[in-house]
Amino acid sequence: MVMNDVKLDPFILVSKLLTTYYSGMEKITFQDFKKFFLRFESYFLEQDVKLFLNEVKLLMRRDELIDINEIASMVRNDIECMPK
Question: pLDDT by residue (tens digit) across 15-74?
C-alpha cells in the first residue's frame, strides 16, 4: 500500500505507513526501526538517516521500545519547523 497525497497530515501518513509495515504493532524495537531504513536506504541520504535515527533513539523507553505514534509526531514536528 502506498500513500501519495501531499495534503495528508504527516502524522497520519507516518503512523499508517509504519503500523502497516509492522503488521499493526504500536511499539517496535529500535533495531527493527533501523532495519526499515536499511531496506529503503536508496531513498534517503546517508547523513540524513544517521541524524534521524539519533533523534528516534531518544524516544526509546526503558523497555527499549519506541511508540510508532511518537515517531510520527516527531516527523510532523520536524516538517512543520521547515520553512515553506
Answer: 998 999 999 999 999 999 999 888 888 888 888 888 999 999 999 988 889 999 999 999
Listing DSSP states for the chain in one string gives: -----TTS-HHHHHHHHHHHHTTT-SEEEHHHHHHHHHHTGGGS-HHHHHHHHHHHHTT--TTSEEEHHHHHHHHHHHHHHS--
Distances (CA, A) of 66 to 30, 42, 44, 83: 7, 24, 21, 28
The CB density around residue 60, as the number of other CB atoms within 10 Å, is: 15
Q: Full-prediction pTM beyond 0.85? A: no
The torsion angle over the Cα atoms of residues 41, 47, 53 and 55, rounded to 10 degrees, is: -150
